[in-house]
Design brief:
282 residues, alpha+beta, seven-stranded mixed beta sheet, 16% helix
Length: 282
């Protein structure tokens, strides 16, 4: 067992939404600046309607903005570019302001997920220099992706468009196909876990350090957490997240409970496997 020092990053979520009439199942992410979240939301209410909205404090970090955007119906209309372009496969619709129904995004889930092609892309979370971010729903059964395009214009985040498309089907088994079966078929799952499975967790004797060890298959089934089975969410901070990638990192964060799990998958010779599992929950 190898012991190394590491900091533990915690993202905390608030479960609130100003309007409960939504078109999609909601979910959202904010930064760990929980103490200032209420102040930021109050600041949002003071913003007047303008053709060019003035930046607010929450605009500095996208995670803070998306919380305010999902929670406040007035801000949401101010920060949505109308008529909003909605691309549904080959069909282009234009949504007028009067037709818009408040969208709580992800605020009603007890967890959220992030997807990356490579481990080093995890560092993109929390970058205050971002100018373009996409919020995504990945519907596993229907193999569809719904993507919300946000751009920071003169310091203020705006929803510019929504796009819904089919996930591309390649010659080899793609991650969505694999993952959908992995989380619903225990026999299939057991055949697609590398043994021994690399395991990273917090040192029980020192919460500021982590332990790196391994799990056999029986230990995996003893420790394994519940994974999403119907859809995945994602916030694209700049990671590629390609349909055809041979590696995927799935991060699952709980809302307000310190839960953080990361799953590392790879495809070798056309076959996917889970080769590393990280549990840094506190």
């Amino acid at each position: 067992m190898r012991k190394i020092g590491a900091g533990v990053c915690l993202f905390v979520f608030l479960l609130s939404c100003g309007n409960r009439n939504t078109k999609v199942d909601p979910f959202m992410t904010i930064s760990d600046m929980v103490d200032s979240a209420s102040y930021k939301a109050d600041t949002v209410m003071q913003v007047e309607t303008d053709d060019e909205p003035e930046p607010i404090e929450a605009d500095e970090l996208f995670d803070d903005f998306i919380y305010a955007y999902a929670s406040d119906s007035i801000l949401q209309q101010q920060r949505t570019k109308f008529p909003l372009s909605y691309h549904n496969a080959d069909t282009l619709l234009k949504i007028k302001k009067a037709e818009w129904v408040h969208d709580c995004l992800f605020t009603r889930q007890s967890y959220y997920t992030l997807l990356f092609d490579h481990e080093e892309e995890l560092d993109l979370v929390g970058d205050t220099a971002l100018a373009s971010v996409q919020v995504e729903w990945i519907f596993l059964k229907d193999r569809m992706v719904r993507k919300y395009y946000f751009e920071r214009i003169k310091g203020a985040w705006m929803l510019e468009a929504i796009n819904q498309r089919q996930i591309e089907q390649g010659k080899s088994e793609d991650f969505v196909t694999f993952y959908s079966r992995f989380v619903t078929d225990s026999i299939y799952q057991s055949r697609h876990i590398r043994e021994p499975l690399m395991y990273v967790t917090i040192d029980p004797d020192d919460e500021f350090s982590i332990l790196e060890t391994t799990l056999d298959l029986n230990q995996w089934y003893a420790f394994r957490p519940v994974l999403p089975t119907d859809k995945l969410s994602n916030i694209n901070y700049g990671q590629k997240n390609s349909d055809g990638s041979n590696t995927k990192v799935l991060k699952v964060n709980g809302i307000g409970n310190g839960y953080t799990n990361v799953f590392y998958f790879r495809r070798q010779k056309g076959v996917w496997e889970l080769y590393k599992y990280e549990d840094t929950s506190i």
